[in-house]
Structure formats: C-alpha cells, structure tokens
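Known limitations

Structure tokens in this collection are predictions and should be treated as such. Users comparing against experimental data should check residue numbering before alignment. To illustrate the layout, the record for Disease resistance protein RGA3 is reproduced below. The input appears on top and the generated tokens appear beneath it.
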Amino acid sequence: MADVLLSALLPVVMEKVTDSVLQQFGVIWGIHDKLKKLERMLSVIHNVLEDAEERQVKDAGVKNWLAELKEEAYEADDILDEFNAEVMQRKAEIQVDMSKKVRSFLSFHNPVCFRFKMGRQLNDIVDKIEKIVDEGNKFGFTFKPPLQNRDRPQTHSYVEESNVIGREEDRKKIVKLLLGHDHNQNVAVLPIVGIGGL
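Generated tokens:
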C-alpha cells in the first residue's frame, strides 16, 4: 500500500466522525461524548499537522510521533467504518417485521453486544489518541489553520465588468452578430474554457 500522508487521511476520519447519522446513533448508543471527544482531538491534530509534517524531515521524534498517530487514525477509521455499517444495518431493520428483530436480538450480532464492543473499542482509540496528542505537546508545534480556512483568492468565472478593459468593441460585435437579422449566416458556438488569466 502506498504511504498516505496523515494530512490526507485525517480529513476522511474527521468527516466520518462528524456524520450526522452516526452522531444520532451515538446518542442512542451512549457513545456520543466519546465521538465528540474524538472529533475535538482530531481537530487539534489537524491544526498542527502542517507544522508537524514539515518538521518530520529534520526531526526523527516528530516522524515517529506522526507514524503512531497515523496508525491510530487508521484504527479510528476502521472503527468508524464498522459503526457506519452497523448504522446502515439498523436503519434497514426499521423496515423489518418484529419477528426478525427478535431473531436478530438472539443472534450473535445483536445491538447490545455491538454497542458494548464498539463502545469499548472507541474508548480505547480515544485514549490512545489522547496519549499521542499529549506526547506531541512536547514538540511545541505551531498552530497553522488548515489550507481551506486560510484566505485565498476567489476562483470563479464571474468577472466584474469594471475590471475588463479594452473589450467593449468586441462585446458589441458579438451582440450584434447574435441579435442580427441575417438568417443566412451560420453562427458557430465555441465555449471558452480554461484557467482565468491565460
């Protein structure tokens, strides 16, 4: 498997832990507080991750810290995938009649056993990540907001007319061509696409 940067993995795990349906079932299953704690820790990690990934090149301790963190992020991802699978199954069971629910309860894979098992696994992963975060505090990472939160120039196809200079005559010719009454002339439409400014 190709080596994945933690900065690529972490947003995926964060998206899963903040899933609204999972959060709702978390309340029902009594694990909502642990999910919220995991979400807060992942957010803290995400805010110092850029600094940590830059410093791992020169600092073996930071590199090891990131490796541990990545291992636990994969573990959290697996646990959250299991939760999501269970949530989908529970949602499907709402459509099933009562007799099948009784059989499901008596089977090995029942909601009470699952809730206990997953609650314990979630507890373990939250505790492990919390310890790793505490160990990371010794490195004194610099808080850097994630790239999507930084101020970046807006990129869109809308251009304010006051910023366009020297195209008025071309615009008039195009409008005249499109609105003209010369029906014998074939007008080809060519979309203009690409990166603005090129």
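For this record: The chain has one domain: 6-149. Helices lie at 6-17, 20-29, 32-55, 60-93, 98-106, 111-136, 168-179. Please report discrepancies through the issue tracker.
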